[in-house]
Amino acid sequence: MAVVKIRFGLTLGPEVAAESYAGIIDDLERLKFDSVWIPEVWLQSTLDPIVALTFAAARTTRLKLGSHLIIPGKNPVLLARQLAQLDRLSNGRLLVVGVLGLPGEADTGAQVLARSERSAALAEVVPLLRRLWSGETIDHAGARYYLSGVRVTPTPVQEPLEIWLAGQAPGALRRCGELGDGWMPGLVLPAEAAELRVQIEQAATDAGRTMDPEHYGVNLYYANEPLPDAIAQRLAARRATPSADDLVPIGMDALRARVDEWVDAGFSKFLVRPMVPPSDWTSELDMLAREILPLTT
Question: Quick check: is 240 in a domain?
Fold first, then answer.
């Protein structure tokens, strides 16, 4: 079995204060984490990913810059320009996971399209972004977007600038196999994800594509102490089984063991995220660096 490149990034939840952000970025760069991730949450987050990652690009030289970006509901030309310029300004350090957005009524309303339209919009825009990043002048007549004689410059440094996808529903797995450059699930156990990966690879085969075996990762929550009841109940509302304690490893020994399970299942890119935000980010990141970064290969 080929040795995969194991990498660890940190995901910052929407509750992270803007005042803490610069220090966290400095610590991640100092400790040699692979990446920082700012998920896009339109109505509940203190940090906009494009703004926050541009700030991080100017403050660092090696840290990769990632986001779970909401694609449906955005102007694809503007999005293509923003991401291309951010990749250019960071000298090719941008990472993108395309997502549909949160399912709540307010969130879907902010996207200015019906929830039922989001999947089709994502499927139309992902190939369109790639065409816009080619540097060619393009025409496009799709179900939702019409472009005539459009050219985006500058283009990204990365050729290609990859778009990974998320989601665990059958349609999301099929879309990932047909369109995605990689897969990044969350709140799933390694054995479950390994079975879902088979569906992605079959969809890719059916579409005449091949998924890179290095391009499977996971949003990996953890906690240092047993979860508060409120958080456990919130998780149970999203997934009744397995239990919150099974989904979220408690303590560093359990986190390392869970990473080993994921590696055995064929996943190698880990976006760790504390289920309970720490009171002292520097101490938390120092601890994570000691405990999990030695697992990097």
Answer: yes
Q: What percent of the chain has pLDDT over 70?
A: 99
To the question of pTM greater than 0.90 for the whole model, the response is yes
Q: Do the beta carbons of residue 89 and residue 54 sit within 8 Å?
A: yes
What pLDDT is attached to residue 2? 62
Q: Quote the tokens at residue 237.
A: 């509302």
CA-based torsion, 134, 135, 141, 145: positive or negative: positive
232-235: long-range contacts, CB 8 A cutoff, minimum separation 24: 235/187
Domain-embedded: residue 192: yes
Asked if residue 2 is part of any domain, the answer here is no
Report the chain's mean pLDDT, rounded to a whole number.
94
Instruction: Count CA atoms closer than 13 A to 38's CA, side-chain side.
Output: 24
Question: Residue 180 phi/psi, 5° resolution?
Answer: -80, 155
What CATH number has the domain bearing residue 62? 3.20.20.30
Q: What is the mean pLDDT of residues 5-18?
A: 94
Rg (CA), the chain: 19
